[in-house]
Design a protein that fits this description.
Elements lengths: L3 E2 L6 E8 L5 E9 L2 H16 L6 H12 L5 H11 L3 H4 L9 H12 L5 H21 L6 H5 L16 H8 L5 H13 L3 H6 L16 H6 L5 E4 L2 E5 L2 E5 L7 E4 L2 H13 L17 H12 L8 H12 L4 H8 L4 H8 L6 H22 L1
Antiparallel strand pairs: 1-2, 2-3, 4-7, 5-6
Helix pairs in contact: 9-12, 9-14, 15-16
């Protein structure tokens, strides 16, 4: 593996042959190295990268990883991962991928914990790093994923825990909202549990029967047993100053049956519009929309100020306390797995073990009475 010195600049350069992904012979040339060793290291690293060996550095493997997964993930995910790598690359960048041990992962975790990051942020960084090693394990013959053996980090709890509005609190909050658009938006999030991005992406075409919604038809809609569904197939977010439409967070398409109260709010809102089109967005873009409504409700009624996403949690809590089937709840929320719903809302579910113990105690009491009578 020769390296060459440039007589004019006094720096070193690397020039060597390699085979690309198609098996074609190519020549690589790179100049500007201060030391001969740097040029030789570049050649060795470059050839290792193309061989797909786990002996390459973590930084080089991440270049491969990005190339592999970029066509398969959303732009928003790429942007998020780029931010996460700022906490990962400085620590692991120069380490050989195959030599990174569970203790290295734990030392990295501990360095982040000491900085006081929230538990949710630590878990997101850990998941990002683990995904990289899992990819190496699956496609590049890495012996094991050190993140699996190191375990998940546990830092400080987030500054804000999950908060919810009960049905009474929701009705109190809504009582001070007079604008038809605001009332419909608040109702949509509370009664369906959809994500905020999904709300923003809605068009009237996604609202079943929307063309028939009118106050004149409302008595008929109210009396009939027909159910109207909301079709969720996309999401909207801001990316580099523009609104872009993507698939939903979990790439799932779902339909959600709407309660009559929500249908009424949508009807009143639709009647207030100057123009109506099935292709038009249900809710026009505003930088802060639901946040303003929640803030107003808090100021005027004293109801606690929650985050927009907490309306989704409020919907889930409402269904759980109504003893709704967990599979139905998971489907309405758009979770890929029921286990996700259980993990997120396990603390809300009623104390089933307490019920079981009560039943056992009743059985024991009856048994004791039988024994005494005998």
């Amino acid at each position: 593996m020769p390296a060459y010195k440039d007589a004019k600049t006094g720096t070193w350069y690397a020039k060597f042959n390699y085979k690309n992904e198609k098996g074609e012979s190519k020549t690589k040339f790179k100049r500007g190295f201060k030391r001969k060793r740097d040029a030789l290291d570049f050649e060795a690293e470059f050839k290792t990268l193309y061989s797909g060996s786990p002996d390459m550095s973590f930084r080089s493997f991440y270049t491969l990883y990005k190339k592999d997964v970029s066509p398969r993930i959303k732009e928003s995910t790429k942007e998020k991962r780029q931010c996460q790598m700022r906490k990962i690359m400085p620590y692991f960048g120069k380490m050989p991928l195959a030599e990174i041990q569970p203790r290295d992962i734990r030392n990295w975790q501990n360095s982040l914990i000491k900085k006081g990051y929230s538990n949710s942020y630590l878990l997101s960084l850990h998941s990002c790093l683990s995904a990289i090693f899992k990819h190496a394990e699956k496609f590049y013959n890495l012996a094991k994923n050190p993140c699996t053996l190191a375990g998940r980090p546990k830092g400080q709890q987030g500054k804000r825990d999950m908060q919810i509005w009960t049905l009474d609190e929701f009705k109190l909050a809504k009582s001070c909202i007079t604008d038809p658009c605001d009332r419909a938006g608040l109702s949509m999030l509370y009664w369906t549990g959809i994500r905020y991005g999904e709300l923003r992406a809605l068009t009237w075409k996604d609202v079943e029967g929307a063309e028939d919604f009118s106050l004149l038809n409302w008595p008929t809609i109210q009396k009939t047993g027909r159910q109207y569904a909301l079709y969720i197939s996309k999401s909207m977010r801001r990316f580099k100053g523009e609104s872009i439409v993507t698939s939903t967070k979990t790439d799932l398409v779902r339909s959600i049956i709407m309660p009559k109260e929500l249908i009424y709010d949508l009807t009143v809102y639709k009647e207030s519009l100057c123009r109506f089109s099935l292709e038009a967005p249900v809710f026009p873009y505003r930088r802060v929309f639901i946040e303003e409504i929640i803030k107003k409700a808090h100021q005027e009624t004293g109801v606690k100020r929650i985050r927009v996403h907490d309306l989704r949690h409020s919907h889930a809590s409402l269904l759980i306390n109504m003893n709704a089937n967990i599979a139905v709840i998971s489907k309405r929320l758009g979770h890929k797995k029921i286990s996700t719903t259980l993990d997120v809302y396990s603390h809300i579910f009623p104390d089933e073990e307490g019920k079981v113990i009560s039943l056992v105690n009743k059985v024991n009491k009856s048994l004791n009475q039988t024994i005494r009578q005998a």
